[in-house]
Write a structure and sequence with these properties.
Low-confidence stretches: 1-6, 8-12
Number of strands: 0
Helix content: over 70%
Strand content: under 5%
Order of helices and strands: HHHHHHHHHHHHHH
Shape: elongated
Mean pLDDT: 92
Largest sheet: none
């Protein structure tokens, strides 16, 4: 329990007491897997010690070797990015798979992406779909979107617009911008849902609002992508709005407000 509490402190605090660090180091040296993972996280985040990716890798590896799924995942990410170790897709995939086999949802999604894009493994849409689905079933929005995209394009599964809408809707309800945008397009074109300009307009408004919220809360590295998304949404609204009656615009605005205020639960 001690090391679970420290993990919560790592997530919520900007500093770590020297005594916490010393106790964690002692327990890690004695082979406590959770302490080893927490120590890796301390070095990775630079909390209580100077940021040091190589030391993070060292301690993640010790915890990963004892079967800690999150350590396996974090170490895989470092191999994936080449941080603290040389970039190595093979080792990244090996570790993603270990964590994914334990049910770690983020690892399942990343393993799906590897198969989707053929990074370190032969491209395999069926395997990508398999791992995306496992992560999507655990609520990972990016996996839900990716699964929806595969159904829309018939990649690894038979093309099925209704299933695409289902998974886009789940991801959209989790605030995933691209899913909200694609859902608007599905309503506009009547693919997988009855054609509805009102619903399309509402989802364009919703993804615009979500984009504004994301721009305010996300790291600077994400802001160019969000800005690109916002431009695309503005262009779509400029095309759609002149085609709508005043009543349709009012209905779309009301639906968007109702949906947003209900945290995406009441959107029909």
């Amino acid at each position: 329990m001690r090391y679970f509490l420290l993990l919560a402190a790592l997530i919520t605090s900007t500093t770590i007491a020297a005594t916490d660090f010393d106790e964690t180091m002692t327990a890690a040296d004695q082979g406590n897997a959770y302490a080893q993972f927490n120590l890796g996280l301390l070095y990775r985040l630079g909390k209580g010690v100077p940021e040091n990716d190589a030391e993070a890798v060292k301690w993640y590896r010790k915890a990963a070797d004892q079967g800690i799924a999150r350590a396996q995942y974090n170490l895989a990410v470092m191999y994936d990015k080449g941080e603290g170790v040389p970039k190595n897709d093979v080792d990244a995939i090996r570790l993603y798979r270990k964590a994914a086999d334990q049910g770690y949802a983020k690892a399942q999604f990343n393993l799906g992406r590897k198969y989707d894009y053929g990074e370190g493994v032969p491209e395999n849409n069926a395997e990508a779909n398999k791992w995306y689905r496992k992560a999507a079933d655990q609520g990972i929005a990016s996996a839900q979107f990716s699964l929806g995209f595969m159904y829309a394009d018939g990649e690894g599964v038979p093309e099925n617009d209704a299933e695409a809408v289902k998974w886009y809707r789940k991801a959209a309800g989790n605030g995933y911008l691209n899913a909200q945008y694609n859902l608007a397009l599905m309503y506009y074109d009547g693919d997988g849902v009855p054609k509805s300009s009102v619903h399309a307009y509402a989802w364009f408004l919703l993804t615009k609002t979500q984009g504004q919220a994301d721009a305010a809360s996300h790291p600077d590295i994400m802001k160019p992508q969000i800005a690109e998304h916002q431009t695309r949404v503005a262009d779509s609204l400029n095309i759609l709005k002149p085609l709508l009656t005043k009543q349709q615009i009012a209905e779309g605005q009301a639906l968007a407000s109702q949906c947003y205020e209900s945290d995406y639960k009441d959107c029909d």
